[in-house]
Amino acid sequence: MKKKLPVEKLLRWRFETARAEAPPAPPAASLLAFARPWWETSPERFQLAIQRLGSIQIAHAHPTSKSPQSRIRGRVPTLLVRTAEEIETSVCILSMSLSEGRMQLSFQCETRPEPDEQMFEATLVSEATAKPLFCALTDKSLDNEYRLSAKLSDDLAKEWERLKLTDRMPFRLILRSMASSS
Fold first, then answer.
1. Which of 13, 20, 105, 181 is deepest in the core (most CB within 10 A)?
2. Handedness of CA 170, 172, 173, 174 (dihedral sign)
3. What is the pTM of this model?
């Protein structure tokens, strides 16, 4: 008959085994690099993306217009970055709300996402200055809508608090496929 081991001794043995098998902790410098946004870790790639993003033109019509161009309202120029390609496209903003400094945004891509693109890293870039505002991860819903939620800086939240869905958006988007986020 086997002798019963005390739980404490069993847990201590499991802890020591796990510690011996664990890889070494990463250096602090690499942990700090992981926390930096991609535009700081890849400034050349970011500048190329900004140039392409700046070249995307979408006509905006007056909201009371009855022309087909009026449907363009609520579209945001977007650069879709995948591993092997970059696509100039746009997204249609479906909803946007700001509450207590937190932005909730949902949109649909004009370009059909790949089946494995369940998430994007969305970088919002200022329309006026071409500087990155913030970066957030998106989630995909069943109906091919993407949603993001992000805490805004106090200045940005104050500036955008009166922004309506029918207004021209003060940002452009860089959507990086999670498979290509290097």
1. 105
2. negative
3. 0.74
